[in-house]
Amino acid sequence: MSSNLDGFEQKFFFQYWKIERKQETVNWFRQNSFPIFFQYELVDNIMVSASRSMATMKSNDQTLRGLGDTKVKFNYQSPTGYFRASAGVSLPLGKNILKGGEIELANKLYHEIFEVDVARLGQGLNLEGALIGAVTLKSILLSAGMNYQRTGGYHIIKNTFSYNPGDQIQFLLGGQIDKHRITCRNTLIYRNYGVDQIGGIKSFEQGSELEWHSSLMVNVLKTQINFFLDHRWRKPSPSVTEFNFQMDNARRNARKLGFGLQYPMMPTLTISARFSDYYIASDELGRGRSSAQQISMGSRLQITDYTKLRLEG
User: For residue range 88-145, what is the model confidence (pLDDT) as tens digits?
Assistant: First the structure.
């Protein structure tokens, strides 16, 4: 369920996974998360927003509580809406220090195939800035932007060396074509990760990666049909672990494709269905390839102007 009231949004996510691999000591786990988002207009075209994703994870005999940092961001949007700038800070309020018995469950945060809502431990004090602009040419919308994140250090395990993830920078190019009942979107993202350090010493360099996201949306009568295809390519990186914990999310080559349907049963009730196939390649860290197929059904009920009920499974 989610509610929106004057820039406030509260959501609830409940996710459960069962792992059927003999070598796994964690054969099931779940994550419950409660994202909160607040936005307020300071002056014309300048907004301040704050968000917090409070999450808890539980498995056979391990529990992680207090996951998720707090983010504060300032946004400026030009009167035309075609230029936006933002600056923000991520406050280190989420759990980032592990006990020995929590490491195995915490590693599940960094396995992409699970697609958990809160997908990492808390970090140090992070600073972020972004710029994005767009132009229109008849039915074509073109956009370009960049984002830079300065990451701060923190301790993963108490009384050990500090860990400082590398800074991140990314560049984005996007295009959208609207033609009658058809909308086509394509986005290309280049992302580069700086050097990770443990105790002030270089330990890992994830390098760069390239992402391409493509989607085609078709409206047939009242039904909205959406097809999507996502790709990610990255350079190989050397292996690194510390205290049996994967230090960073060393993302792998991946492909995801699928389609979805959405139909309004009535003005206040919309039903949807979705299928996706997710494939992740093996890598130089010794992790084998993974794949997952997902079929989901959902409904969205507009209870009041400010309250929505969402059911998905």
Answer: 998 877 777 777 677 777 777 777 777 777 767 777 788 999 999 999 988 899 999 9
198-216: pLDDT as tens digits = 777 777 777 788 999 999 9
- For the chain, which domains are there? 2-312 (2.40.160.40)
- Return the biggest CA–CA distance within the chain: 62
